[in-house]
Design goal:
The protein is of the alpha/beta class. The chain is built from four helices and eight strands, in the order βαβαββαββββα. Helix 1 crosses helix 4.
Length: 162
């Protein structure tokens, strides 16, 4: 099973900025990374007028577009998928990172900014990345400590492979 760690926090806490830096650091270390982003709103990645948009407008439940270098599959859902259902199709990576999914019971790193509401300590919280420590007994990293966060993730990956 591919290790999965979720970066969680409220809007504008810096999750995306932190995650992109961590992804670059892990890629520089030779890891293959998958990312799953939770969107609390409906999103649209297919735009009006494209062939795949026309296929979806015609009623296709699944539309796939593929090139020599990438593939995208759009499923029209009748009910939301769980994170476990979403990641079933992910393979050939060393680590799955998610942004969001704070209600899932997966290992979580909370991203928090001073002056904003925190999520609260949960049993699946494995670390905190913030301006200052707000929990006791949880590993803490400053927002700019990208190499140390990557080291922490590497240790988590090794531990889960044993």
């Amino acid at each position: 099973m591919i290790p999965l760690i979720s970066f969680v926090g409220y809007s504008n806490s810096g999750k995306t900025t932190l995650l992109t830096k961590v992804i670059r650091e892990l890629k520089n270390r030779g890891y293959r990374i998958a990312v799953v982003k939770h969107d609390g709103h409906d999103f649209e990645i297919d735009h009006a007028g494209t062939d795949t948009w026309k296929h979806r407008q015609a009623g296709a439940d699944v539309v796939c577009i593929a090139s020599a270098h990438q593939v995208a599959i759009l499923h029209t859902l009748t009910q939301p998928l769980t994170l476990d259902e979403i990641i079933q199709g992910i393979s050939n990576v060393d680590l799955i990172l998610t942004e969001g999914f704070k209600l899932e019971d997966k290992p979580q790193i909370e991203v928090h900014r001073q002056g904003r509401e925190n999520i609260g300590l949960k049993k699946n919280r494995i670390a905190l990345v913030a301006d200052q420590q707000i929990y006791t007994g949880v590993p803490f990293f400053k927002l700019e400590a990208i190499a140390q966060i990557a080291d922490f993730l590497e240790n988590k990956i090794r531990l889960s492979k044993v």
